[in-house]
Amino acid sequence: MLYLHLYMNIVKLDAIDSTNSYLKDLVKQKHVENWTVVIADHQTNGKGQFDNEWTSEKGKNLTFSVLIRFKKLNVEKQFYLNYAISIALYNVLKYYIPEKLTVKWPNDILSANQKLGGILIECIVKNSAIDFAIVGIGLNVNQKDFPRELTFATSLKKLLKRSINKDELLDKILLEMQYQMLLIQKQKFSDIKYLYEDILYKKGIPSMFVDKNDHTFMGKIVGISTEGKLRIELENESFKDFDLKEIKFV
Ligand code: BTN
Fold first, then answer.
1. d(CA 183, CA 190)
2. Is the dihedral of CA 117, 122, 128, 129 positive or negative?
């Protein structure tokens, strides 16, 4: 039997470079309990995907990382972890924003075309199994103004025109993450695939993409492959799978 891990060790910090880096360093120094959550009011060097920076106004948003330990999760299944965390965020946020919420592959949380949040998962692998993951989440909650370069960023406050209680939101997210991690522990991968494909941005909508050779083409997202790649139906009705960095929306 697998149970929800009801006790969580929550560490609140005023400021840190990055909650992901902090947890990673902590694990090197001492034993860190499963479901330890590190949350910071301010990150001075927040990390995004693909070595991007994650910027967030001090005190306004949720920036936190969770240490999750796994038993027998093969490293080849890591992408299900990404998808399950995206589903967790979606499931909580849909009660705040009932419309236009989607997940842009692999795990940007969008409202219409604007980014509300992102996920950065760093795994420590032992003998081809994921020993533990540091799941970093950045969610724009009460920030009203964004730097000019972040043209596509939005927040719950901007969308809902009211402030959101961050502690309540965090509790809901952590609980939903626990449910999703039960699916992972029970290896319910086809359920995760099904749930994820249902919330995928632009699924079934003809869109323009650009591949890694700067070649633009029309296609339609149909879902994900069993290797976690993005599956696109091309204009000639054939299917092609794309890995991270191999494709972008135009
Ligand atoms: C993305 O690029 O979309 C992923 C952003 C992930 C940001 C979060 S904020 C908390 C955690 N600590 C970090 O340094 N990054 C993640």
1. 10
2. negative
The answer to whether residues 84 and 188 touch, using CB atoms and an 8 Å cutoff, is: no
pTM beyond 0.85: the answer is yes
pLDDT digits (tens, 9 = 90+) for 28-73: 999 999 999 999 999 999 999 999 999 999 999 999 999 999 998 9
Mutate to test the pocket of ligand 1, among 26, 44, 63, 104 (most ligand atoms within 8 A of CB): 63
Q: Which atom of ligand 1 is nearest to the CA of 49?
A: 2
Sheet arrangement for strand 230-234: 239-242, 230-234, 216-224, 207-211, 247-249
For ligand 1, atom 15, name the residue with the nearest CA. 47
Q: Which two tokens stand for residue 238?
A: 């054939």
Enumerate domains of the chain plus CATH numbers. 4-198 (3.30.930.10), 207-249 (2.30.30.100)
d(CA 69, ligand 1 centre) in Å: 19
